[in-house]
Design a protein that fits this description.
By secondary structure, the chain is of the alpha/beta class. The protein has 16 helices and 8 strands. This is TIGR03013 family PEP-CTERM/XrtA system glycosyltransferase. Pfam families: Bac_transf (PF02397), CoA_binding_3 (PF13727).
């Protein structure tokens, strides 16, 4: 992110310096504040990069796909400045063709640096070196959750040190480090320049080399529980590893302060008004299209109401544009599928680009939902999921949202297993909930809308 900002800023500063130095008249004179515009352009470019997913550490896309994202980001930056900024600050306007060339140069340089970095691993030297204490069932979660290279961009996993208390060894492709004695741990850490130790034994009591770990900690090595490691590296809470004392003593899960609740409601209402003013033409066009497809002849409704589970388990009626046939649930409640034959032709487009969710602005006004939070589920499914998945009911500790951390990080889901995976991301959000995280999710939701991803 910082590299992209510096590239964009350098291009701008050099360009505007050339304009000043050669006294060119096809760009406005900025006098003492000529540097403000390059900084503003570079900063907005970072935000648009974020919105198209370029800073997702687990982004798995081809070079063509990454270049496409860079181009979309550049186009968004160009459009925002041309339509908004240059109309407000008319004295700052740049010739459109010159500005387009300027943005295209930034996009090209940013993509080129990314291509070189990914191809030749230019920045691999910055990875922290990690060793895991434990090589059994609990430690194997790391291999299962982070088996791809893209999952390990932030660290180099040196290996796993087995313990006598480990259960059956489930590690298949990892380096197993066998020390003569666990008392040699401190020496091993020093010799191999280990930056972080992850504690992942199947049985903690009496199995850990506490004195060696103490020496490592005092020597500046980070010692971290496997739950915290997975949370930090994957953006999810490993539900199957949670134990009550970890929840009690860990930071986070603080969301009920009355000032925060009031501020959240005001923020969401203001944002809902802004989104409504921005999208009301889309709302009208969508209503007309649904009516013309099957509402006029078959008597289908435009809107669809459905009972969902909200904060603290309270039920409420969610409002959506109808994207399925009128008789979609004649056989009772069903999980929605990615390729669902009950979806209408118009409904496919509505669901792909999240337009069917726009009427939920009314739920936001009523205080039943926020813009960011776990997606609300149907009570029929919640009863089943609470029985099947530990800690599932805790996702109702906050208001449900139009978008959420799980929607950004997990593909379309329609089963108990998918709900478990999404719960891991929902608990991460609830634990780390903050205004900054909400803003990050809102910005990155643009990626879902633009590229038709997730649900």
């Amino acid at each position: 992110m910082m590299m992209d900002w510096l590239v964009a800023l350098t291009v701008g500063l050099l360009g505007f310096w050339a304009v000043e130095f050669y006294d060119l008249d096809f760009v406005p004179a900025y006098k003492e504040v000529w540097w403000v515009l390059p900084i503003s352009i570079a900063s907005l470019f970072i935000v648009t990069n974020l919105s198209v997913g370029l800073y997702d550490i687990k982004l798995r896309d081809s070079h063509v796909g990454i270049f496409r994202r860079c181009l979309v980001s550049g186009a968004m930056t160009f459009t925002i400045f041309e339509i908004v900024v240059f109309n407000i600050f008319t004295s700052s306007e740049i010739l459109p063709l010159l500005f387009a060339a300027y943005i295209l140069l930034i996009v090209t340089l940013v993509f080129t640096i990314r291509y070189l970095a990914n191809t030749f691993e230019m920045f691999g030297i910055t990875k922290k070196r990690v060793v895991v204490i434990g090589a059994g069932e609990r430690a194997s979660i790391i291999e299962k959750r982070m088996r791809r290279e893209s999952d390990r961009r932030g660290f180099s996993l040196i290996g796993f040190i087995p313990l006598d208390s480990d259960k059956e060894d489930e590690l298949k492709r990892e380096n197993i480090i066998k020390l003569e004695s666990l008392d040699d741990l401190h020496e091993f850490v020093q010799e191999n320049q280990i930056d972080e130790i992850v504690i992942a034994p199947d049985e903690r009591r009496g199995s850990l080399p506490l004195e060696s770990l103490f020496d490592c900690k005092m020597g500046g090595v980070v010692v971290k529980d496997i739950l915290d490691f997975i949370e930090e590296e994957t953006g999810q809470v490993a539900v199957n590893l949670i134990y009550p004392s970890w929840v009690i003593y860990s930071n986070g899960f603080q969301s009920r302060h009355y000032i925060r609740v009031a501020a959240d409601y005001v923020f969401n209402v203001i944002l809902a008004v802004f989104v409504f003013l921005l999208t009301w033409p889309i709302l009208l066009i969508t209503m007309a299209l649904i009516y013309l497809e099957d509402g006029r002849k078959k008597g289908g409704t435009i809107f669809y109401k459905q009972t969902r589970v909200g904060m603290d388990g309270h039920l409420f009626e969610i409002i959506k544009f109808r994207s399925m046939r009128q008789d979609a649930e004649k056989d009772g409640a069903q999980w929605a599928q990615k390729t669902d034959d009950r979806v209408t032709k118009i409904g496919n487009a509505l669901r792909k680009y999240r337009i069917d969710e726009l009427p939920q602005l009314f739920n936001v006004f009523k205080g039943e939902m926020g813009f960011v939070g776990p997606r609300p589920e149907r009570p029929e499914f919640v009863k089943e999921l609470i029985k099947e998945i530990p800690y599932y009911n805790h996702r109702h500790n906050v208001k449900p949202g139009l978008t959420g951390w799980a929607q950004l990080n997990y593909p379309y889901g329609s089963s108990v297993n998918d709900s478990l995976e999404k719960l891991k991301f929902d608990l991460y959000y609830i634990k780390r909930r903050s205004i900054l995280l909400d803003l990050l999710i809102l910005v990155r939701t643009i990626e879902i809308i633009l590229f038709g991803k997730g649900r």
